[in-house]
Design the sequence.
């Protein structure tokens, strides 16, 4: 039986590599809209963050998400991320 390869992605906050399905993806599309991508399939530049409050707070405080996506992140996106992490 063939072993399936598990794609790894790196959290922008803590730098730890984890399986893609354990992380939350934030995407900047062609229209420079930033959205939380729970499916992992939306076209655009993506950044991944752990589903922990510590990583989220660190990313907000140091603006790592803004630097990674090369755009200013609105409070609405941070609120949506907060909702997803709290669930």
Sequence:
């Amino acid at each position: 039986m063939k072993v399936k390869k598990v794609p790894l992605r790196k959290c922008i906050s803590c730098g730890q590599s984890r399986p893609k399905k354990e992380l939350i993806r934030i995407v900047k599309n062609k229209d420079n809209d930033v959205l939380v991508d729970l499916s992992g399939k939306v076209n655009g530049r993506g950044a991944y963050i752990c589903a922990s409050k510590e990583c989220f707070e660190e990313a907000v405080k140091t603006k790592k998400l803004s630097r990674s996506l090369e755009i200013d992140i609105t409070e609405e996106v941070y609120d949506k991320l907060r909702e997803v992490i709290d669930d």
In short: The domain at 8-86 is CATH 3.30.1230.10 (Hypothetical Cytosolic Protein; Chain: A;).
